[in-house]
Design a protein that fits this description.
This protein is mostly helical and 72 residues long. It is built from five helices and no strands.
Length: 72
């Protein structure tokens, strides 16, 4: 809503285009998501693979069907 009002103010000659451009840059920066850390690798893998797959992999590992390298 504020952007519309400022655009109308530019059109009516109440503010200059440079002021509007600076404000538009600020609005754009506010819309961009803030970058966060890389997250937790292990939680991401768990979500990606699913609980059934994780359970099956560890079951096979504990049965001795493959070693830690294969499990990884």
């Amino acid at each position: 809503m504020l952007e519309i009002l400022q655009r109308l103010a530019v059109d009516c000659g109440l503010i200059d285009a440079g002021e509007y451009t600076e404000a538009a840059k600020e609005w754009e920066a506010q819309l961009k998501p803030k970058e966060s850390g890389s997250g937790n690798y292990y939680n991401s893998q768990h979500a990606y693979l699913g609980q059934r797959y994780i359970d099956l992999a560890f079951t096979r590992y504990h049965q001795g069907r493959f070693d830690e390298g294969a499990l990884a």
